[in-house]
Amino acid sequence: MTLGDPAWQHLRAVRRPDSESTDPERAGSLARASEERLRFALAAAPIVLWTTDPEGVFTLSEGQGLAVLGHDPGAAVGRHVAEVYADAPEVVANVRRALGGETFEATVTVGERVFKASYAPLRDAQSEQIGSLGVGYDVTDLVRAEHAARQAREQAEALLELSRVLETGAEPGEVARSALAALGRVLRDGWLVLWQREGDRFLPLALHGNLPPGAREHQLRGISASHYEEYGLGTGQGVFLTPETLPGDARLRGVRGAALLPLAPGHSEQELVLAAYRLGSFERWLPFERELLAAASRTLSAGFGRWRHLRGLEEATRTDPLTELGNRRALELELGAELGGAELGRALHPGEEVGVLSIDLDGLKRVNDTRGHARGDALLREFARALRGSFRREDRVYRLSGDEYVVVLPGVGPAEAGVILDRVGVAVRLTRAAGFPGIDASAGLACCPADARDAAELLRLSDRRMYEVKAAKRARWRVFPRAAEFPAPRRASADLPRP
């Protein structure tokens, strides 16, 4: 038995005087005083003191700690421990161990109370075992305080980890997976999903935890947005569903609880919902869980909002503000990605086929000089729109500066050069029809791997071929026929070979 235990400290204090006296009369007086102090300790402190006979029948049951268990002092005397504590089998098992001669400590839960208890054999003056002795100290408030402190620490650590994850600038899917893992280490039970709205359905952006097979298949298919809107998520308020408020189909799949917290209400194209699900014997959401999930939803909402803002700023640095096409920086980054991740100046992987088309718009200076720069800007926007409409969806159009454009064409080689120039002719005709009859364009095509395996060299070669066409045009006054002379395209853009 540990003398540092609060209960044993009380007992040691009240027993010491009679053990220190050798005078019988004084010893009797001290014993009575000791008994009074013992009674005072048992009445003042949350202690339970008991003894049993060799069969496990209580011979003593005292202490103020009995009150929290709904027991009166002495009421258990004459009754077997298995009868009194039928709902606390660990108490019964511990008394049996003490009757078996063991001395030990254990923490036991009786009802909603927690006791730190010490058990020992009870011996007579001849050291013969005559039963068992035990003393328990009610530590419920201490345990609850420690539990609350641990939960607060875990919550703080989880939110700190969320903040760190969000600061990495990673893509939303990767951030979502790391964020749910951090929450899962605290919540432990059930599973977590970060839903992202796509049209009229929510699809899982990330999942964490062990989902039952039926629930996993159901959630991977997505959930109708109207299903969540029924709970008022569009108002920005979270909901915590219990077995009584869950829809019937969820209960059939074994779900017992669901917490749904929207992250970005009002932005349907980017709407996110943080969800936690519970199984088994779940009955209610604890205040700690509610607070953690609400704080996590706010942290994630702020983090994803910041990510969208930074991504918008980044996109702005890659976008030509006049035409909304990608600019030179975007071309350099994305052309490198298209060519196996090679940056400009690095060798490309053999076998890849990508066309790079450089285009120069003829006639912009004349429009600026005769009709003003506002009209010239309108021409640049119209030609950009015509180029986007004349090429395939996977072809990417960029405006580098002034009247220079570039189109990156996945899966296009030298054999398609005629078709590509036809597409430029279509864009020219569309622009003329939009109110710019005097414009024309010069273009040059270079292809990987036929012409070069280096991204920068591809750009240089296509640009040089475009200027060769432009120079020949000046020498002959024109290269492209005027609008009425354009031949029909050899092949529709949808028929261009796919990568």
TrEMBL record:
Residue stretches of biased makeup (Basic and acidic residues): 15-26
Gene3D superfamilies linked: 3.30.70.270, PAS domain
Region (Disordered): 1-30
Keywords: Plasmid
Signal peptide: none
Keyword flag Cell inner membrane: no
Record carries keyword Cytoplasm: no
Protein name: GGDEF domain-containing protein
